[in-house]
Design brief:
Elements (H helix, E strand, L loop, with lengths): L1 E7 L17 E2 L2 E2 H10 L6 E6 L4 H15 L3 E5 L4 H9 L6 E8 L7 H14 L2 E7 L4 E4 L5 E5 L5 E3 L3 E4 H10 L7 H7 L4 E5 L10 H15 L1
Parallel strand pairs: 1-4, 1-6, 4-5, 7-12
Antiparallel strand pairs: 2-3, 6-11, 7-10, 8-9
Helix pairs in contact: 5-6
Bound molecules: cytidine-5'-monophosphate.
Cytidine-5'-monophosphate binds next to α3.
């Protein structure tokens, strides 16, 4: 029973204010993507690694990550992404070997998600045989607001969670959900839930935050430096 981790890294990430696509922005000794891959390759059980990158980066990504994957004993496949995150994940799913029965989907932008979080998601998928998302309590007070900015109501935050990646699924569930999806979702758990399948939340990790704006990159640099120290 093999695991695959699909790392989606094909977004442009314009909010970061860099010329490069977000996953290829320098971070620590490498890039956002290489820091993300370091955690994947540090998992307890070495997974198949699928990197989904912009079409013009497929060759260079393959050559720079092949030695790292080989050293870790991981099969590596690099494919071109699509116009949306969902298309990019679908591209990764399409190249999984038949032996894979547990699939984790991870945003490269959540580069500091620790290996232990991946291991915990894998363990929960196998134990419960359903989709698993890491999630954190919402600490801010959340309001519903009208289009013109009027505060309409305060939402009860005790029932809300902010979800992260890696999100894990039995392979058959994810394949089925992607084959039947007719709209765009912002994460895989929403897509799987729309196919009528159950998804559970497990405790997330603050380090799995998404690098989105320059301040996030700064925080990521600090965490990488602390980790190296
Ligand atoms: O844009 P956002 O931060 O929500 O993207 C989440 C993740 O999905 C990023 O790691 C990004 O590279 C990836 N993505 C992708 N293909 C797209 C859009 C986003 O692989 N077309």
């Amino acid at each position: 029973s093999a695991i695959a981790v699909i790392v989606v890294a094909a977004g442009s990430g314009t909010r970061l204010g860099h010329a490069e696509p977000k996953a290829f922005v320098p971070l620590g000794p490498g890039t956002v993507l290489s820091v993300a891959v370091d955690s994947v390759l540090a998992m307890r059980e070495t997974p198949h690694l699928v990197l989904v990158v912009p079409v013009d980066r497929v060759e260079s990504t393959r050559s720079s990550f092949a030695p790292i994957a080989e050293a870790a004993g991981a099969e590596l496949v690099v494919v071109a992404g699509g116009a949306t995150r969902q298309e990019s994940v679908a591209g990764g799913l399409a190249v999984l070997p038949a032996s894979v029965d547990t699939v984790l989907v991870h945003d490269a932008a959540r580069a500091l998600a620790p290996a232990l979080l991946f291991d915990e998601v894998v363990g929960a998928v196998r134990a419960r045989r359903r989709g698993i998302v890491p999630a954190l309590d919402v600490v801010d007070t959340v309001k519903r607001v009208s289009d013109d900015g009027r505060v309409l109501e305060t939402v009860d935050r005790s029932a809300l969670r902010a979800v992260q990646t890696p999100q894990g699924f039995p392979r058959a569930s994810l394949d089925h959900a992607y084959a039947t999806a007719h709209e765009e979702f912002t994460d895989d758990a929403a897509l799987v839930a729309s196919a009528g399948l159950v998804v559970d939340a497990v405790p997330g990790d603050v380090r799995a935050f998404k690098i989105t704006v320059p301040a996030d990159l700064h925080r990521a640099e600090q965490l990488v430096a602390e980790r190296a120290a």
